[in-house]
Amino acid sequence: MDHLADRGLNLASMDIDIAAVDFHRDTADATVTFTPKGAAPGQGMTLHYQMHQKGNRWEVVKTEDSGHGAASSGAANPHEQPGSAAAANPHGTMPSPEDLPPVGKK
Questions:
Q1: Which of 43, 45, 53, 79 lies 20 to 30 Å (CA to CA) from residue 67?
Q2: What does each of the 106 residues of the chain score in pLDDT, given as a tens digit?
Q3: Through-space distance between the first and last CA atoms of the chain, rounded to whole angstroms
Q4: Which CATH fold would you assign to the domain 1-64?
Q5: Domains of the chain by residue range
């Protein structure tokens, strides 16, 4: 939860379900489902976390999208620091409709 809160997410606006955790000494793999409050379960996303224990805390080492059941909510990716290179869109911004040529016309 600290990992998500540090990224500026409004945790009160979503249901968070820890579906599974596998512990291996000082490492763990967790599967977590995020669904906007009031949304159908299929409208959420599932992420897999690789974690490492440091002292009495678990820190996220790596995050992977499950590749299924994920829906774009328009919210920031909860696993990227704002302003990081990974948070930037590598493809640039989408052009305005006014900047596109008319369809079917040459």
A1: 53
A2: 888 888 887 888 888 888 899 999 999 999 988 888 888 877 888 889 999 999 999 999 998 886 544 333 344 455 555 554 444 544 555 655 665 666 665 5
A3: 53
A4: Nuclear Transport Factor 2; Chain: A, (3.10.450)
A5: 1-64
